[in-house]
Amino acid sequence: MATGRFKCAAAVCDWVEKTFGRRYTAAGMRKVLVRVGCSFHKASAFLFKADHAKQEEFVAQYEQDKQKVKDEGTRRYFVDGVHPLYGLEVVFYCWLLAGQRFEVGVGGGRKRLNILGAYCPDDMEYLDRRYTEENLNAQSVIELFALMMVKHPHTTHFRIYLDNARYQHAKVLKEWIDNTRKDRGVTFDLRHLPGYSPNLNLIERLWKFLRKEALQRWHPSFEEMQRAVAEVLDNLPRYREQLKTLMTERFHLTPVVSTIIVGVAEAKKKTA
Predict the structure, then answer these.
(1) Per-residue pLDDT tens digits for 74-106
(2) Is the dihedral of CA 52, 58, 61, 67 positive or negative?
(3) What is the pLDDT at residue 45?
(4) CATH classification for the domain delimited by 67-254, as one of 3.40.800.20, 3.40.50.720, 3.30.420.10, 3.40.50.2300
(5) Collapsing DSSP states into helix, strand and coil, what is residue 113?
(6) Which residues contact 81 (CB under 8 A, 6 or more apart)?
(7) Which residues contact residue 34 at a Cβ distance below 8 angstroms, ignoring those fewer than 6 apart?
(8) Can you tell me the distance from the alpha carbon of 269 to that of 47, in angstroms, rounded to the nearest whole number?
(9) Are 190 and 67 in contact (CB under 8 A)?
(10) DSSP run (H or E) holding 233
(11) Cα 120 vs. chain centroid, distance in angstroms?
(12) Distance (Å, rounded) from C-alpha 247 to C-alpha 182?
């Protein structure tokens, strides 16, 4: 059962009959499976190109540095972008009556809100820059870093955890960081995550929370969607209790590639 080979109760019935000579109906087999501790799941995906060893190394270094940077007065942020598409994020799972079909309208996906956000794990502060006409680029990162300095004018060292998007390695960004250190004495220490490792970026969990709270319902206009997003992101203290358990500094590492069997994964529970 743990190999994920059975896609439905009927497949289990066939295997049991061939293996043990016992016949079950699909309904009867579902009851048996529940009784022995099984449940129907949706498989979850992960990026198989991720390097498990590099992820372990990152987490070990992160834990080692965590107390040190606090003692030094360094502010830490996890940075990432998210791009809500108008009308295309409203499909969701929900309980319905047996046989019922629940349809929701979707848009054409032509309008997109681009957000570059930063989350501090030490005090749950959230900052961002939002754009409706521009794509995220190196200038977006510079504007976000400038906002950090405005919010914390006495901080001279910022440690930034971020992925390897091309614009986050841009020459113009590196030059701005060098000039800021020389002219203002403020250091932005960029710590790039291992490749294919969104599971190590805390703010990815916040984006998942945002989709659940603001995007999984229909908005009559693109502007309404923007207001729904702002209602969540501008009022995160309102969700402090929910975020306290969601945004913990505990990281799930991807499986070791050599142990992967196609079709095997842990997943969120879903009704059959």
Answers:
(1) 999 999 999 999 987 776 777 788 888 888 777
(2) negative
(3) 67
(4) 3.30.420.10
(5) coil
(6) 114, 115, 116, 117, 136, 140, 165
(7) none
(8) 21
(9) no
(10) helix 222-233
(11) 15
(12) 34
CA-based nearest residue to 132, from 70, 86, 93, 80:
86
Euclidean distance between CA atoms 149 and 137, whole angstroms? 19
- Return the residue matching tokens 């998210």: 82
* CB of 239 closer than 8 Å to CB of 209: yes
Residue 76 tokens read as 């830490």
- Considering 61-70, 200-209, 262-271, the range whose residues carry the highest mean pLDDT is 200-209
pTM more than 0.85 = no
Q: Provide the residue ranges of all domains of the chain, joining segments of one domain with +.
A: 1-46+258-272, 67-254
Q: HSE of 70 in the Cβ direction (CA atoms, 13 Å)?
A: 9
Contacts of 231 (CB under 8 A, 6+ apart): 214
Residue 212 structure tokens: 């659940």
3-class DSSP state of 58: helix
* Secondary structure of residue 82 in the 3-state scheme: strand
* Residue closest to 253 by CA, chosen among 215, 196, 208: 196
For residue 226, the SS3 value is helix
What residue type is assigned to position 3 of the chain?
A: T
Q: How far is CA 147 from CA 126, 164, 196, 261, in A?
A: 11, 21, 28, 45
Please give the span between the terminal C-alpha atoms of the chain, in angstroms, as a whole number. 16
